[in-house]
């Protein structure tokens, strides 16, 4: 557990900045922000020991709305930045946040390798199945028959990415899914993710009522994830294949050792560079 303050000393509002969110009314990201600040308050984490990293998109504005160290990076690059920060400063609680476009399109390669490297930080992906900031284009998680975008008038026509299944296949050691309409449940999942030792992925269903108003029905579609042994990857994989994408809770958790920067072999970087220069000039 990272450094804490006295229990109850900080309230969720203490983790929020004076910057008012500019998300659309009803945007599910507001609930994710609430759940996150409640989780930090519940754990009593010292604000100066928490850092939030984001990429580009509506959801990636989140660091500005917190009174924490934050970094608003470039499109799709939140995970390598978060990885580097955690490796360099292992005493920090590092959280990466982003959306389905940022995380599974341009950042998809980074997502795969963050899962397999198992560095100890949390990734919260706020999935609304649409590019909201750029006015409603289809994203990697958009259903194949969604025809509300002028760029895809007949729908994307390809199967959507399944983030939970992708994370499991890539080796993530903690996988959970929550949703905007249950802030308490999402708070509990974020707490569990922070307490997990290793890479923790939280798939947060987050409605976009502006461009996908039918997502208002998501709150009626969610249900508990199948009752399986969450440490049995094969059983979880079978349950994920049967799931409709609305199963909530901790889906998978294993104890594979997290990457430990202290155990990495030491190198004489100057000598290595000189050797490489000599080799290339030969």
Question: What does this 3D model show about the protein?
Answer:
With 282 residues, the chain is of the alpha/beta class. The chain has one domain (12-281): Thiamin diphosphate (ThDP)-binding fold, Pyr/PP domains (Rossmann fold, 3-Layer(aba) Sandwich), CATH 3.40.50.970. Helix content is 32%, strand content 15%. It contains nine helices and eight strands. It has helices spanning 29-43, 78-88, 100-106, 108-117, 163-170, 183-195, 218-221, 233-242, 269-281; strands spanning 50-54, 69-72, 93-99, 122-127, 174-179, 200-205, 223-224, 247-253. Strands 2-1-3-4-6-5-8-7 form an eight-stranded mixed β-sheet, sandwiched between helices. Strand 7 (223-224), helix 8 (233-242) and strand 8 (247-253) form a beta-alpha-beta unit. Helix 5 runs antiparallel to helix 8 (233-242). It is globular.
List the SSEs and their pairings.
Layout lengths: L28 H15 L6 E5 L14 E4 L5 H11 L4 E7 H7 L1 H10 L4 E6 L35 H8 L3 E6 L3 H13 L4 E6 L12 H4 L1 E2 L8 H10 L4 E7 L15 H13 L1
Helix pairs in contact: 1-6, 3-4, 4-5, 5-8
């Amino acid at each position: 557990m990272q450094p804490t303050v006295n229990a109850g000393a900080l309230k969720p509002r203490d983790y929020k900045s004076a910057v008012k969110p500019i998300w659309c009314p009803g945007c599910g990201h507001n609930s994710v922000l609430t759940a996150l600040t409640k989780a930090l308050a519940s754990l009593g984490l010292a604000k100066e020991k928490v850092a939030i990293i984001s990429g580009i998109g509506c959801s990636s504005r989140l660091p500005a709305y917190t009174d924490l160290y934050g970094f608003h990076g470039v499109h799709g690059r939140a995970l390598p930045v978060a990885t580097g920060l955690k490796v360099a400063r292992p005493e920090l609680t590092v959280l990466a946040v982003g959306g389905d476009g940022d995380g599974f399109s341009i950042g998809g390669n980074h997502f795969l390798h963050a899962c397999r490297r198992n560095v100890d930080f949390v990734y919260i992906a706020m999935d609304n199945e649409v590019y909201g900031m750029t006015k409603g284009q289809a994203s990697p998680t958009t259903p194949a028959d969604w025809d509300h975008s002028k760029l895809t008038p007949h729908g994307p026509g390809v199967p959507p990415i399944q983030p939970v299944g992708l994370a499991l296949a890539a080796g993530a050691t903690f996988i959970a899914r929550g949703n905007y309409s249950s802030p308490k449940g999402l708070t509990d999942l974020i707490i569990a993710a922070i307490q997990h030792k290793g890479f923790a992925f939280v798939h947060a269903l987050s409605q976009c009522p502006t461009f996908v108003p039918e997502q208002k029905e998501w709150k009626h579609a969610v249900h508990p994830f199948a009752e399986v042994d969450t440490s049995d990857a094969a059983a979880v994989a079978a349950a994920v294949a049967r799931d409709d994408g609305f199963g909530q809770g901790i889906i998978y958790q294993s104890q594979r050792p997290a990457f430990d920067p202290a155990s990495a072999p030491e190198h004489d970087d100057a000598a290595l560079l000189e050797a490489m220069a000599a080799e290339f000039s030969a």
